[in-house]
Design a protein that fits this description.
- There is one protein chain.
- The protein is mainly alpha-helical.
- It has seven helices and no strands.
- The longest helix is centred in the N-terminal third of the chain and has 170 residues.
């Protein structure tokens, strides 16, 4: 192209020179050398044009090839990007698989450890089962013994139940008697009140007689109160005496048991060791326990409370006969039990 441009510039100069030569008459006509040069230059121009056409054709073909190659390059770039994506995906998959593999391996380790621990536990459980079997056999033996004892206790329970029923019958009889006495008392009270109303209607002489009778009844009530107090004191005193007798009987039994267990020689030997007489040794043996003294104190307090309760009943308003009867019966039953105990102790000592 540069050569073509140079040639075209030279041709233009030539044409300009020819034109200037035609115009000027004084200037001579161009020579043969210039024509030859013109022809050479035209030939060169033609050849350069041919070459340019050839090169333009080659350029076009090359452009087409470049476009095709660019398209191929684009397709290859797309394929490369797809392959890169696939590679990335595969890498991610490989990493996931590796992490899963590690997790599975760790799970396998943990499962193996758990299996070993379970095997140990199974062994321990088997040993426990053997121990439990032996314990169950021993428990069965105990159960058999317990069933036998249960049957014995059931027999005792039935006996006690029968005795209780008998005592309940006695109690019901006593209660019925108490109710009858209370009814009689109420009837007496009603009749007395009716008589008092009738007497109130009578004259002043009758009132004086009634006052005298009332004084007598008050005296009688006071006598009854003194009687009740004396009776309760006597009951309490007799119960205390029985308790002391029972204690003495128990001590006597213990002393006799000690004397039976200990020979006369051993008693004398013990007295000589302690440097006391045999009677003093017997007194030492008869010393009361702390439990017995505490029990005696408790019984004394109960007796005191019982006396105070009866005093309250007597001082209380009507009716108090049923409560008084219950309290006296309670003390009488206690006395009865103590008498039975004393008699049994006396029979043993005899």
């Amino acid at each position: 192209q540069q050569e073509k441009e140079d040639l075209q510039g030279k041709l233009k100069l030539r044409e300009h020179l020819s034109q200037t030569a035609g115009k000027s008459d004084a200037v001579p006509s161009p020579s043969k050398n210039t024509d030859l040069e013109m022809k050479q230059l035209q030939c060169k121009l033609k050849s350069s044009n041919n070459e340019i056409t050839k090169q333009s054709a080659t350029i076009k073909s090359l452009k087409k090839e470049v476009q095709e190659k660019e398209e191929r390059i684009r397709a290859l770039h797309a394929k490369i990007s797809q392959l890169e994506r696939d590679l990335n995906m595969k890498r991610h998959l490989v990493e996931d698989l590796r992490s899963r593999l590690k997790a599975n391996q760790e799970n396998e380790k943990t499962s193996n450890e758990t299996l070993e621990s379970l095997e140990r536990k199974v062994k321990a459980l088997a040993e426990d089962c053997l121990n439990k079997k032996t314990s169950i056999d021993s428990l069965k033996q105990r159960l058999n013994v317990a069933t036998k004892e249960k049957s014995q206790y059931e027999q005792m329970y039935h006996k006690a139940k029968d005795e209780l029923e008998k005592k309940e019958l006695k109690l019901t009889n006593l209660e019925s008697k108490m109710i009858k006495t209370e009814c009689a008392m109420t009837e007496l009270e009603t009749t007395a009140s009716q008589q008092l109303h009738g007497l109130a209607k009578q004259s002043g002489h009758a009132l004086e007689t009634l006052q005298k009778k009332l004084l007598l009844t008050n005296d009688k009530i006071e006598e009854f109160m003194t009687f009740v107090k004396a009776l309760t004191r006597e009951l309490q005193h007799s119960v205390q005496e029985l308790r002391t007798k029972i204690k003495q009987a128990k001590k006597m039994g213990e002393v006799r048991a000690c004397k039976k267990s200990l020979s006369q020689e051993s008693v004398q030997l013990a007295a000589s060791i302690l440097n006391v007489s045999t009677t003093d040794l017997e007194e030492i043996l008869e010393v009361e326990d702390d439990e017995e003294t505490a029990k005696a104190k408790m019984e004394f307090e109960k007796d005191k409370e019982w006396l105070q309760y009866i005093q309250k009943l007597i001082e209380a308003q009507f009716p108090f006969a049923s409560y008084l009867m219950d309290a006296i019966l309670e003390k009488l039953n206690e006395k009865k039990k103590l008498v039975e105990e004393y008699s049994s102790l006396m029979k043993r000592t005899v």
